[in-house]
Request: fold
Amino acid sequence: LNAGAGVINLNGNVTGSGTLALQNNTAASGAVNFNANVNLPSVTTFAQPYAVNFNGSTTTFSNAATFNNTNGLGLGDNSADSVTFGGGITNTASTTTINSTFGTTNDNITLAGVTLTGNTTITAGTGTIALGAITGNFALNLSSTTGSTLNGAVNINSLTATSSTTTINTAAITTVGTQAYQNVSLSTGTSLASTNSAISFTGTVNGAQSLAINAGTANVTFGGVVGGGTALTTLTMNGTGTTNINGGAVTTTGAQTYGAVSLGAATALNAGAGNITLGAVTGNTNSLNLNSTNTT
Reply:
């Protein structure tokens, strides 16, 4: 299919046993829109300025796909749409716009910029998920038993990362609603912020980086040990809600700063040579040990 400078709309189902090749032989930008279901083994695109959009209720490619076209990739136009790349998908040539339940069959997903135009679920099974900057006032759910990596700024409605470990390699994740993580690994100094919505970690948090969290008036919950594998450099709680520490220990090499704290278990705060600053502390009969060679 050759879109040239125009638009090709395919309004019927597309099926077959071969490779679908999409190209543009002009310098102008065109588009190819699949407005019904697609079920094919493979798709090939070229490094040319056209867009490809899959808008059917079901889009399935059984093999791996790399998108080289430079004017955008669209995966679904309704949150009920299902888009599956059985062998994995890579799009680092342009922005991927997603409004679907989208994933692979245990293979990797690598996308540069992402724009959400509806509530979106991305699943990779045992494959990995790696995403660049993410925008759009919608919910995003990431699921991978191997792990997900966030490589760019995130500014969306809400984020649920049910991946085994979420590697945060960006300076800022901002949501209107909640943020929920399992295990987290910090690759750079990071700020997590929400608009008066809870931010929670059910597992561990590790990484020799700074972590600042501002959930506004909402609570922040640490369900697992923080800094037990690799100590954080600093931990700063900037909101006015309560920090629930349920994992038993928080370890940093520098300062820890909290407002109100609630202890869900006997807890040790270990700050090395850093200060530990606390607001009101509650927690029934749970003990609190403060360990710092500086002022506490």
Observations:
- The first strand starts at residue 7 and ends at 10.
- The chain is about 0% helix and 50% strand.
